[in-house]
Task: structure prediction
Amino acid sequence: MKRPVSVLVVVHTPALDVLLLERASHPGFWQSVTGSQEGDESLVETAVRELAEETGILATPGELVDWHLSNIFEIFAEWRHRYGEGVTHNTEHVFSLCVPPACAVRIAPEEHLASRWLPWREAAAACFSWTNRDAILMLGLRG
Result:
């Protein structure tokens, strides 16, 4: 059973180009790195693991920025079977990682179909998730 606790990692360049990944299970749905906490991982350990699994980008916990921001959202009905009975909401914790402009990305084909870098405003508009969109918009405001 998955835990209803996850991370969102907004990967961006110094110029605020943002990495988006297209979900394999939902072509046309673009998002940042996301994933559920496993075992006794800390949130930052979850973020580091998911980043490596989904993009091939290796980072240390100290390189990630913990925004100390969490969002609660309703889990799509089609994904609720992955959680315990009666679980309907997830708490997502936001992190970011600044990478060099030419950062190579190796997607996990079982999870994603493609990756792309977009300027932050375009990336925010392309996201299907309101939490992801809002985090990218906040990134732009943080500069």
Q: What stands out?
A: The first helix runs from residue 43 to 55. The chain has one domain: 5-142.
